[in-house]
Write a structure and sequence with these properties.
By secondary structure, the protein is mainly α. The chain contains 4 helices and no strands.
Length: about 90
């Protein structure tokens, strides 16, 4: 049980650093940036928390919005995992 939590924490750290790096060159007032930050925030949640949040998004904004958020966050998490896999321990 410890391992997934540790991995989630490492993934969240990579995503947080990525967003911090992007913030320097992004138009932080743009809707695209707000959407990117929402995806990043969601991607940092644990699996159970992501499921709960997705059901709220589906209720409020519809299944399509929830699906888009889920796909974007999944891609962001995958990129973070690849980054961690390449990084020397």
């Amino acid at each position: 049980h410890m391992l997934p939590n540790r991995l989630d924490a490492r993934i969240a750290n990579v995503i947080s650093n990525t967003i911090a790096d992007e913030r320097a060159t992004a138009d932080t007032a743009s809707p695209a940036w707000r959407a990117r930050c929402e995806v990043a925030q969601f991607a940092m949640y644990s699996d159970p928390d992501r499921r709960i949040f997705l059901s709220h998004i589906a209720d409020r904004r519809g299944e399509a919005a929830a699906s888009t958020l889920e796909q974007s966050a999944s891609a962001m998490r995958t990129q973070a995992i690849y980054f961690l896999a390449r990084k020397p321990s």
